[in-house]
Structures are given as structure tokens and as C-alpha cells.
Amino acid sequence: MKDIVLSxxxxxxxxxxxxxxxxxxxEIPSGEILAILGPSGCGKSTLLRSIAGFEHIDGGNIKxxxxxxxxxxxxxxxxxxxxxxVFQDYALFPxxxxxxxxxxxxxxxxxxxxxxxxxxxxxxxxxxGMDARYPHELSGGQQQRVAVARTLAxxxxxxxxxxxxxxxxxxxxxxxxxxxxxxxxxRGVSAIIVTHDREEAFTIADRVAVMKDGVIEQxxxxxxxxxxxxxxxVASMTGSADFLxxxxxxxxxxxxxxxxxxxxxxxxxxEGQVVELLVRPDDFLVLxxxxxxxxxxxxxxxxxxxxxxxxxxxxxxxxxxxxxxxxLPVGSVVDLIPSRAAPFVAF
Length: 347
Ligand code: ADP
Ligand code: MG
Prior knowledge:
single chain; CATH 2.40.50.140; 6-stranded mixed beta sheet; globular; binds magnesium ion
């Protein structure tokens, strides 16, 4: 078991009549990168701000390395928590060079050691040789790299990143999140990154937490989140999701697409109960068959995939992913062949 560097135990935070955090629980082991995924207004920033010490909580407690930093009766100020924070707007010092920005928080007196650390951090975030530039001479992505290097320079216990890549374009984001993940792993520092972008959460984090209305609904590895979501909400937050009606008949769920094995995290499921099975875009193969009973009603080209909307007999539709060269036209009559080996998740 790795050490827990950060824990939140049943923390609550209200703003007037709004409950931003509702008995939220969280534990971060040493070196772990956790992504928090959730819609706007669900309490992500409030959670980070409470951990950082920018908000007082109303109940529960926050511990950093086993020391209580926030509770109803304790409050250690932000500057004493050894927590680094990276925001959406890079917030660099405009009058300092890249070197000046990064070395700002380093508590080492030896000039040469300090310079060596700055150089190492700039290399880690992919900004080698840019130390003499000023923030206005950098692109948004480069400025955010400086902000990350500056945060790491202060040797924090944990780094909190609040939608750090939201202002960057898609190509830039893919690259910077790889670099930032590698930099965090290299420094062995744990991190929480808030995002509303599923792909970002999955690619940067070791575990993902899905948050709704101030509560973390599930926290697991990206694979487990995608394959075994505990709720329809988590299923929809973690990828494209359709829900197919079925009825439980012993170990099978009977649906209009056939009988399937099922699993659930619901407390009790009784014989004959009507459930919804989660269908992901890769769960059924679409094969043209003039005698088939399903119909392609639309195509969405994604570049690296073609998403077909297939209408079932009942009028219900599911979305199926095909390769980018799929040439099945709208109107095609097709069969749907289950390609899923694992049982379907029932809600
Ligand atoms: P997120 O970051 O997930 O979008 P926030 O944590 O910013 O959500 O906000 C959670 C809820 O708390 C929202 O309903 C928001 O309006 C409310 N809230 C956040 N900060 C304040 C504040 N300083 N005053 C009043 N309400 C706030
Ligand atoms: Mg926010």
C-alpha cells in the first residue's frame, strides 16, 4: 500500500442555499495522478480550492500527510500547505523571464543548484532554451508549461490543476497533457486535475473520479470507469452511452437485440425486473443484410471513425462505431452482432 498524501473525509461546503460539496470523500496515494471529471457547477473548483486552503469547509476534514489542514475547528493557511496550484489562466509574472518565473519559488540558496533545477524543470516541460523569454513572447501552451514548471519548482506535496488546458486548442492539448503527465511522474508528485473533457481525464490520470452535485459518484481506473460504471450518469460522463431496455430472466437480460448476460452494482435486482443495459459504440458489429430488421438512419464521420445510428424495431436507436472507411449508406438494412465478451452492465 502506498502512503496516502491527501485525504478528504466527508467534507461539506455550502454557499448560502447551494451545497457545493456534500460529504465528499477522496484519498490520493503518493505519486498518483487523479482526474476529476464532472459537469459545470458540480463542485470541482470548490473541492480544489478547499484542499488548497482558499475556502473554509463547513464539515468533515482534509488531511495532508496525515495532518489535519481543514476542519470546522482547524485551518492551516494556503501558503503553509505545500500545495501547488495551476489555473486555466497561466498567471505568470509578466515582468519576469521564464527563468525568473520558474526560479521564483525555489527555496535553495546556492545559485548553481537553483539554475540546474530550473534547467531540469524547463527540459521536463519541453521548454529547453527558452529561459530568457518573457511571458508575452510565448504561446498559451508554452505559458502553461512555465506555470507547471514554476509550480513543481516549489517542491509541492500535491499539485492541483483546475482545467489547465481549457484555453488551448485541441492539438496543443494532446501534447501538453503528455508532457505534464511525464513531468509529474518524473517528480513523483501526486496531482489532482480537474477537467470536463473525458479524453483528457482518461489520458492524463491513473484514476478518474466522476463528480455530480458535490458528490463523487465513482472513483476507479479509466478502464473500470468505462467498462463498469456504477450509474447512468457515470456511464454518460465516461463515453458515448445508449441504454437498451431489457427484462431480467435468471442470468440473462432479454432485449430486442437478444438475451445477454448482465452484471450490476444495484443493490437488488429481482426476476422479471425491467432494467436498462449500457450499450457502448463498440458493443455491436453492423453487418449489411437485406433481410435484416435494423436500419442505418444516420452517419457521423469523425475522421478516425464512422459512427452509425441504427434504428431498432421499437424505434429505439443505438450508436455503433465503424472504421473510417465504412461505406454503409443511410437507409441500409443491417444485422447487429454482439461483439462484447463481457456481460452488459444493467441499471
Ligand atoms: P465547477 O468547478 O464544478 O464548475 P464550482 O465548484 O465552481 O463548480 O461551483 C459549485 C457550486 O457552488 C456552483 O453552484 C457555484 O455556483 C457555487 N459557488 C462556487 N463558488 C461560489 C461562491 N464564492 N459564492 C457562491 N456560490 C459559489
Ligand atoms: Mg470550476
